[in-house]
Specification:
Elements (H helix, E strand, L loop, with lengths): L7 E3 L3 H10 L4 E3 L11 E4 L3 H13 L3 E4 L6
Parallel strand pairs: 1-2, 3-4
């Protein structure tokens, strides 16, 4: 989509995040999603189900849009 620019990636394994960032020309790679909140307008939460609710709530409280995989939570 021309209107979308991926600006950050987070992964539990920093080297995996960095490798994906290099592969897809993304400027920021981190382990903690909170490190990217000032750099993004929205996040896609592709997480284990038990993390959907707590991280989704934190992202929304930070004033960001969130696309969350289903099921939304356990």
């Amino acid at each position: 989509m021309d209107e979308v620019c991926v600006t950050a990636l987070a992964d539990a394994h920093l080297e995996r995040a960095r490798a994906a960032a290099v592969r897809f020309d993304v400027p920021l790679a981190c382990v903690d999603y909170r490190d990217m909140l000032d750099s993004v307008d929205a996040l896609v939460l592709a997480l284990p189900h038990h993390l959907h609710a707590p991280i989704g709530e934190a992202v929304l409280r930070a004033g960001k849009h969130a696309l969350i995989e289903k099921p939304l939570a356990n």
